[in-house]
Design a protein that fits this description.
Blueprint (H helix, E strand, L loop, with lengths): L1 H17 L1 H12 L2 H19 L5 E4 L5 E6 L5 E8 L13 H11 L1 H12 L3 E6 L4 E8 L3 H13 L5 H20 L1 H13 L12 H6 L2 H11 L5 E7 L3 H11 L20 E6 L6 E8 L7 H13 L4 H9 L3 E10 L4 E9 L4 H16 L5 H20 L1 H15 L5 H9 L3 H12 L4 E7 L16
Parallel strand pairs: 2-6, 7-11
Antiparallel strand pairs: 1-2, 3-5, 3-6, 4-5, 8-10, 8-11, 9-10
Amino acid sequence: MQMNRKSSLGANRARNTNGDFERAFERFGARVSRRHISRKMERSIREFERRVSGIKPKIKKLSNGVSVIMERDTSVHDCAVLVVFRFGSRDENARTAGRTHLLEHLLFRGPVGQDLQRAGKSISAGMNADTLRECVSFSIIANRIFAREAAETVSLLVSTADFPQEHFDLEREVVLGEFGTYADDPCLYSEERLYDVMFNIPMSRSELGLKQVIRRSEREMMLRFYMTRFTADNAFITVAGNFNESEVVKALESSLLLRQNGLRFGRKSPKQFYGKRTALRPELDLAHISIGAHGGGYKDPLLDSFFALNILLGAGAYSWLYEKVRDEFGLCYSITSDYSYYSDCGLLDVYADPALPDAVQVFSIVVELLKKVAKGEIPESEYRDAINQLAFTYIEGQNDPYDRAVTIAECFLHTGRVETAIQKVEQSLSVKSSLIAKAAQVLLANRMSVSCVAPGKPGISYRDLETDRLQ
């Protein structure tokens, strides 16, 4: 009886495949047709515009001079508060490289930081901190009813540098351990090394800094470092989501106790290079390659075009690179792309993990696709899909207070002004296929750079890896 039941189920499934399935698939095809998707997209944008039409960021200055950019949206349940300092690893020199990241750890994981995080748990808040190349940020996300407490928590976190010697020693070892985490992960390692061949110091240096600097750092030294950098004139705050504006401002006014007259940082635009670098790992089975190309920074008028091109290549749900490299040729398991941007520069980074003999072919496919875009040989519908996806990222970002707080902070950090969510969506929808083609031309204007972590043993010559052909 069991076997007969299996046979009966199999027969029914075969009959459904021959009949109902085809009709269901036709109906599905009609629903995802480009015309139908386009109409849905237009309707979604109109609904979004109606929803956020009255939502505009406001700027308030605290008594200590810190700017607070607030955007209140009562349609969401949470609130995000982001405290940003206008310096990062890019503003360090050979004697201080790594101290910004270490200090972020000491503040966030110090005794006061741990007490505040425990308090944050009591209001169901999520907290985080990041050291990037151009800024340091401390964030908290909480339900709207705890917006005031969230603002107080993150303000007190950055206003107090109190770490006993035993805690300092412990956290310094934790930070030193991060170097091993990056070195052990061939994906992270290849991407970090890509900066080495594309930029000069300090832009090329990792946010982690230098091991020797962190080893030599002492508690008193880090306290002085805090006093000169974590100051009111180096800080600003973004608040997004659902909150009471007056309560949040009052909380920030009483809790953000930062000193004035911090160091100011004058940056030089980084020099841009191209090149290749290979590291050998005998324990690896696959190669891990990062392919880089120079693009524009935050103020570049083609920035949204670079974003749309990135979606076309490898950041979309079912991208060209995924179709070509993985599905058509089966060259690797993972292939993705990312566009990183800074105040005065940017780069496209394509990561893949092919077998070493296939690395050259993967590189060739990336270049081939970029050339097709640059020549305008891509169907207009493909461009429109990427532009729509870009617009949707801004629409969806409005639903996440943290994403919105970050978007506001990026704009204020790089330009000193704020943009509404509608402006971001309209800017993305104004991208044309010709602008995406121009972005591809910019990326191809210089030779590509390659960072490769490959299986091999010391003693194998560079030429034996054939990575000379990866350009």
